[in-house]
Amino acid sequence: MNGNSLLIDTNIALYLFSGDPTISNLLKGQDVYVSFITELELLGYQEIGEKELPMIEDFLSSCIIIDLNQSIKKKTIELKKAYKIKLPDAIIAASSLYMNIP
Q: Phi and psi dihedrals of 35, rounded to 5?
């Protein structure tokens, strides 16, 4: 991957949607990746109403979605065994490591 790629998680996306200028500036000019976990969490977020849904869908359509594969599964298991982290966080971290992007 090049130096213009970032993988963001659900919290970062929510900060972006709330208008955080730091996040907005950080993502400018970047290829933004999200794990399928982030995609599911955003679309299933209880506080997202019908009014916000198109914004979320537009955002996700501009991102590169990383789907689950055998390599990510294997790395997720390694991370879960090595660290006390929740499964979704382990999948997101494994996706970042698999894609070699921060």
A: -75, 155
